[in-house]
Amino acid sequence: MNIVVIGTGYVGLVTAAVLAKLGHRVWGLDVDESKVHRLQQSEIPFFEPGLKELVVQGLKKGNLQFTTTYAQVVPSAEVIFICVGTPAKKDGGYDLSYIFQSAKTIGQNLKKYTVVCIKSTVPPGTANEVKKIIHKQTKIPFDVAACPEFLKEGSAVADSLHPSRVVIGVESKRAKELLLKLHRPIKAPRLVCDINSAQMIKYAANAFLATKISFINSIARICDAVGADVGTVSQGLSLDPRISGQFLQAGLGYGGSCFPKDTWALISFARKLGYDFKFLKEVDQINQEQINYLVQKIIKSCGGSVEGKVLTILGLSFKPETDDIREARSIPLIKKLQEKGAKIKACDPVALENAAKVLKEVKLFKDPYLALENSSALILVTEWDEFKNLNFSKVGQIMAKKVIIDGRNIYDSKKLKKLGFQYKGVGRG
Ligand code: UGA
How far is the CA of 16 from the centre of ligand 1 (A)? Predict the structure, then answer.
């Protein structure tokens, strides 16, 4: 099938590359000329395992191409996916202007029946707006639809090729059949429904996963107070199939471009509908407080003050296997520690370039051992494999003080204590 994917961010580029791998003829479109130029040379604008290989393959085969011009690709498209950004506004609301701009330009270039399918995360009702905008531009028949995306950064390619489900929101039989045909090679349960329900599924899924994380972080607080182990509690919960063990990893809380933004957007959307989503506000509040909670732990572990002390942050990206630092927990944590007078050294395998743009007065390292030299505390923020498998005898020798604060509960506390480290996790001693 002839597909156009508008927007070459995480969702758009992965969608385009995966659809090309499945044999479709795909155009990735972006208004950013330099980005498109780089993509044409198979340069990927961000770090995502396995993505470059797929893009190279598609470009070589010729069924994946990139352009900045709607007029070149919209007329022959059977399905157009809108994957542009929906950034959060300062008040927690959402900015849909890129969606509407792209709908307008699609409308100006339609030449035959096409399904315009929204993949960006948008509130219910947006598809109707998109429909009105396109209608204003053209008399050509078209359908709007919504296929929300459930991929995770760091495993985006595998998640797209083997998703847990394919949700298809449609309002016509013709659009339903086209989208079912397009997804035929993907083996996963299908849920065909109305567009608003499809979009609610996406928000509800992210809000629910964020809820699980804030829930286990609240349980971790109580574990800390009574000397219980939150890891063991999670394990006990995971044995109940009604709960499932996923997203019950206590720690510094959630970051990234999705959970924070989407929970704020759902709160804001509910408010517009006259519903005060207090429950989700609390989920967000717990997540924000988790930073202060760790700061207090760090100060206590450093003998009551971090003033003038060198502290090492291991991990800057919002999670492993990505260079994305959007809403990464590392950033507010570092800023708060700096406010308390700490001198920060930080290490990350791939996110240093992005972090350098937002962090001030932080010494950045690729090598964890250099970052740990003369440090008064190791603070684990992102659970990269590189940090899991450190040589702790060596670490103990190069640090000024043998103090570890494990913000993701990845280390074996008994082993570290045996080596003479003072260890603190989140919800475990
Ligand atoms: C999330 C969802 O998991 C995807 O299903 C969804 O498609 C995506 O948002 C999106 O809306 O586009 P992503 O943000 O890439 O994916 O990353 P996650 O793996 O979900 O992690 C989000 C944050 O939660 C990370 O900061 C991670 O460290 C944190 N987390 C995750 C925990 O603190 N505890 C856990 O148990 C799991």
Answer: 22
Cβ of 119 less than 6 Å from ligand 1: no
Task: Give, for all 429 residues of the chain, the pLDDT tens digit.
Answer: 999 999 999 999 999 999 999 999 999 999 999 999 999 999 999 999 999 999 999 999 999 999 999 999 999 999 999 999 998 888 878 899 999 999 999 999 999 999 999 999 999 999 999 999 999 999 999 999 999 999 999 999 999 999 999 999 999 999 999 999 999 999 999 999 999 999 999 999 999 999 999 999 999 999 999 999 999 999 999 999 999 999 999 999 999 999 999 999 999 999 999 999 999 999 999 999 999 999 999 999 999 999 999 999 999 999 999 999 999 999 999 999 999 999 999 999 999 999 999 999 999 999 999 999 999 999 999 999 999 999 999 999 999 999 999 999 999 999 999 999 999 999 998
CA atoms of 94 and 123, how far apart (whole Å): 9
**pTM of the predicted protein model:** 0.95
Among 258, 291, 321, residue to substitute to test ligand 1 (most atoms within 8 Å of Cβ) = 258
- How many Å lie between the centroid of ligand 1 and the Cα of residue 255? 7
User: How far away, in angstroms, is 194 Cα from ligand 1 center?
Assistant: 26
Residue of minimum CA distance from atom 1 in ligand 1: 152
Instruction: Answer whether 254 contacts ligand 1 (Cβ < 6 A).
Output: yes
Identify whether 117 is a catalytic site residue: no
d(CA 316, CA 352): 8
- Atom from ligand 1 closest to the CA of residue 153: 15
Q: Which amino acid is at 128?
A: N
8: which residues sit within 8 A by CB, 6+ positions away? 16, 28, 29, 30, 32, 35, 36, 39, 45, 66, 83
Backbone φ and ψ of 259, nearest 5°: -55, -50
